[in-house]
Amino acid sequence: EVVKTDDDVIVVLSDGLGSGVKANILSTLTSKIIATMMKQGASLEDTVATTIHTLPVCKVRHVAYSTFAILRLTAEGKAQLTEFDCPNCIYMHEGVVYPLEYTEREVGGKTIKEAAFDLEVGDSLTLMSDGVIYAGIGELMNLGWNWESVSDFLQDNYHAESSSARMTAELIGACKDLYMGKPGDDTTVATVKVIPRQTVSLFSGPPRFERDDERIVVDFMSPEGVKIVCGGSTANLLARVLGREVTTDLNYTGDLPPIAHMKGIDLVTEGVLTIRQVNVLVKKYLDNPADEDTIRLLDERNGAAMIAKQLLEHCTHLNLFIGKAINPAHQNPNLPVDLSIKIRLLEDLAELLRSAGKVVNIRYY
Questions:
Q1: Is the CB of residue 206 less than 8 Å from the CB of residue 340?
Q2: What average pLDDT does range 62-88 have in this prediction?
Q3: Do β-strands 90-93 and 96-98 pair in parallel, antiparallel, or remain unpaired?
Q4: Predicted TM-score (pTM) of this structure
Q5: Given 78, 253, 309, 363, which is the most exposed site by the fewest CB atoms within 10 A?
């Protein structure tokens, strides 16, 4: 469970006692209670005590039991970690695993471990259920992995440019292999990576009035960061105002129209077909961000995959510059005349990215 406040991000990972529906209920209750209470400003003591007293009691074992890890990250780069009966968080700095210094105390009759530390850009934190360190027991290994084995795996597979989703997918994939595709325990991983502010500006569609051509180009080129242009007429407008040439990529293969190149622009693509496919890829990714097959789709060499990868893995802030000139080829007779398909697709994309935690600003022309 991940929740955001104005200043903090709170990540909760929980693993319920047993398996199946009961374990699912226990872990879901635990993560929801903790995330909701901490978002509302409740103290750790009250949160843990409430969780312990709220969980249903197992009729067989006569205990209400669920492990949890709580990670609170502040905008100032501070991290506060609380763990109860789960594998220790793996903290990596510059590709090297560093052990965290824990203190122990009793809260609500339970012994919890706590750590507080500073974070830097590039640092990563991996939370996991014990199914990760038990991977392989009785199958490929006698005793399975241990914490050090998982740490070594993350170090050996470290790449500075890897997103948190890719790091999670690699670890989950390794566990799946160790279990030979039949996991003997719930195997859950949550990875947090600290990245700098990364701004992407995407321009699509000429403005409604030609007199605004230069204004939209100036506004689009002003912010720092990555520049993406979607649509042939949009690219031609930009080329005309800037006095630059658009060249089509002749080495391009795929079902979508080819990408193009322009000096000072990071990516130029076709419009509606490409944006529609971007939305498909983003939805697929958000449904299961650690799925290896989905991540492979982002690595394909086509305009939609390149945009989706940029927005999902290398973007914190997105500026959308949307021109409202209507392209007759995009119109559906059942839609209002002033609503283009491209605009709807871009607005859908904005909502998808907001749900992914991106800051999205839209300007219409």
A1: no
A2: 90
A3: antiparallel
A4: 0.84
A5: 253
